[in-house]
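Just wondering, can you check both lines?
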Amino acid sequence: MTPRADLKCTGLDLTTGARRVAVGLVLAVALASASQASMAATPRAAGPTPPPESRGFQVTDNARIPGDARTDYSSAMRLLDAKQYEEGIALLLKVTQRAPTAAAAYVDLGIAYGKAGDLDKALASLKRAVELNPRQLVAYNELGIVYRRRGEFPAARESYERALGVFPGFHYARLNLAILCDLYLGDLGCARDNYLAYQQLVPNDEPVAKWIADLDVRTKPPVQP
């Protein structure tokens, strides 16, 4: 059976380009289908992506970002890509000091703390992100992952469900909720419903098809003698 792993939609940035966009002093955190020209959040972990025809969605986080903070942000992303977490976190902290209302910076800071193994600071940073922007889908997904790693499974479920309450088509949170219900909460009805919902969004994910088949076997009524 293929091991189940969290789906992370990470990599928020302030640079310009085909995948990341910030216009002027306004930070836009976008999650969208592959057909859109610009994205500010892309999946870094191995995992499926929505088909081009899937409906896009966007979370906009307005904050004034000084030029030096944008430079530090870009440098921090490069450091984190190189797994130099201590240095990357130090730069992200500077960004949050210069742009204290930029939720995206707190999202990446929380992700960085999580990768460095400091779950308490990861939790605090991600909570700050959703305080600043209650529709921050990436933050809710990452909060769910952090809570799951801390063994706080009901809180993880609530975080994933809050993301889906903002946008039901957010496939990262949909699959993570299914896995949580399946492996950690033992709620097989929740697991199946969310696996199937995820499969509608990402129909060619073969491991998930196998997990659904496995779940069907486990929930099949016993044969009467």
